[in-house]
Amino acid sequence: MLANIITDLTDQLDELSENWWFLLIIFSVALLDSVLPIVPGETTVIIGGVAAGQGNQSLALVIFAGASGAFIGDNLAYTIGHRFKDAVDLWARRKPSRRARLDGAAHQIRKRGGILLITARFIPGGRTLLTVSSGITEQDRRWFAGWIAVAATIWASYAALLGFFFGQAFEDNHTLAFWLAFATALIITGIFEL
Fold this sequence. Notes:
- 38% of the residues are buried.
- This protein is mainly α.
């Protein structure tokens, strides 16, 4: 029963992913995933990669759609953090421990920033927390955007290439291609989180 539901779902996703406008879906979901970490951004890019591996999409366009959506979404999260910095600062002033945590976060971002931004891109929720925190702690916007461009490109390339290689290897079975790529992504994400 569950296997049939999953197969039907992946068949529908396979049909959707063949359309040119699926690139807009990849872009939109990657953007939303940066602000709302419950949105399946990486999964959508993997599906696009599988479609590219089966010849139904351009791999370069799948990567571009995912990376540009993630870049804009991360910058939106930064902007949200920046807009609420005064309220967060007021909240932090009420307790020394809060102030210390906020100052510690600002220090860590300045000290390890670029690598943190790249690594956090692979951790659901972590990317949103760090990008919003970058805005709250007033990190330099150009510095932030530069590192986010690198992080988003690496992330989208990784997810799309996973889908692409499994899509090519299992060209006749898009369901298996997707699930193997997705499982591999989960394992790699788990390693990153550790």
